[in-house]
Design brief:
about 170 residues; five-stranded parallel beta sheet; two-stranded antiparallel sheet
Length: about 170
């Protein structure tokens, strides 16, 4: 899937980052442009109905999640790395391409029965999005869908997220 022109114009390709052979798609110019950010919010929120809350993962998912929540007129919940949230938390561990990590949300941030959309900047292996979905379900919420600005299909994230509706604005080819 080709990205919309406004998105392609809002991404810098950084070769050999974070390691040789990787071409990093830097979204910094997207966030710098009010117009591109607005278009991104519209695109991420498109077709969503009856959503109660948006969840975004630390850290770049906060940006994509907040603009989506604002567009939908709903609240936003952060899914953070361990030790970053006060009070009682729910926690899920997950595997990364280079190790393991955990995500947490505050108890009560998602109420039982709430319809949730999970938003992130990129879906790669899918581990972070899957952990966020498990947190939503652990809290008693229902995952409507998972949305991302970019997706890297060759890393297989969509396969481990097969129980969920996954939408991305751009499928980045290798």
């Amino acid at each position: 899937m080709n990205a919309p022109d406004w998105l392609l114009a809002s991404v810098n390709e950084i070769p050999d980052f974070p390691k040789p052979g990787i071409v990093f798609q830097d979204l910094s110019p997207l966030w710098r442009s009010s117009s591109a950010t607005s278009r991104c919010a519209v695109a991420l929120a498109q077709g969503l109905e009856r959503i109660d809350v948006v969840v975004g993962m630390e850290a770049r998912g906060f940006l994509a999640g907040v603009i989506t929540a604002q567009r939908l007129g709903v609240g936003f919940v952060t899914a953070r790395k361990p030790g970053k949230l006060p009070g009682q938390v729910l926690s899920v561990s997950y595997e990364l391409e280079y190790g393991s990590d955990s995500l947490e949300i505050q108890v009560g941030a998602i109420r039982p029965g709430e319809r949730v959309v999970i938003v992130d900047d990129v879906i790669a292996t899918g581990g972070t999005a899957l952990a966020a979905a498990k947190l939503v379900e652990q809290a008693g919420g229902s995952v409507d869908s998972i949305r991302a600005i970019m997706e890297i299909p060759s890393l297989g994230g969509r396969k481990i997220l097969s129980d969920y509706l996954v939408t991305s604005l751009w499928k980045v080819s290798d």
